[in-house]
Fold this protein.
Amino acid sequence: MTIDEEIFARMGELSPAEKKVARVLLASWPSAGLESAAAVAKAAGTSTPTVLRLVTRLGIGGYPDFQRRLREEVTHRMSSPVSRTQQGAREHAERPVLQAAIAERVGLVEQLAASVPPSEFDRAVEALAGRAKQVAVMGGYFSRFSAELLATQLDQVIPCVDFVEQPVGHDIGKLLRLCPGSVAVVFDFRRYELTAKQAAAIAKGRGAKVVVITDQGLSPATESADVVLPVPVDGLPFDSVVGTIALVEALVEAVLLATGSRGIERMKQWEDTVQIARAHRGAPDPAPRPSTGPAEERT
């Protein structure tokens, strides 16, 4: 488990002063952890001993060890897909590819329970299920596909859901409709994108609640977040979306359960209106369409 995962996992055990330190660290992770203990304490409005107690609670011997481990984690997280693939190929050369790939992705889903704090997940569900005026969901170059899946499924459970493909481009109007009582969900993963940080800041500035779904390195967009859901993404040759998809499906399921009959009614209305055609064995042939042109001669 990485340091920030440890902090998230132990948040409920921390004293009020230690929680202040934890929030300062996570809000500007990982850069805040590379500051001196005194600087972190000043930013949190606590004392240097409080910072050191938090480090000890994480099972780390001292602040120098904390920073050394943090630098190692940052180096690993920010490495390119090429370097991670080269390293992974050496490590897994003796293992059957399919079995190894499946085992690693099962592991990512299992890690999800530890990486996402239940309290943060519950806050995200509460925001989405609480009759939001508008829900704007957006992602980056790769994460847009996960964002679009969340938007598509949420739209069948709650109203007023928008997928924002270019939040600071031609879709800026969807962001400008956000207001107090609205929710913005921002996906952003390592090799983070400036547009995610900008979109989160715009949404926050308009009074919307901001939910950021990111990896354990924590996107800069978390600076504007009310809720942060960190997902394990390690994979070869690229970061895996398995954990992200599992989180998306869990969110949609939880929102449906939280909305109760309201969500079920929305699903019924959605299906009745869209009239999704489901192909199944033994289905009757569709009725012939009326001819719009001259009748064909029968021979």
In short: DSSP finds 13 helices and five strands in the chain.
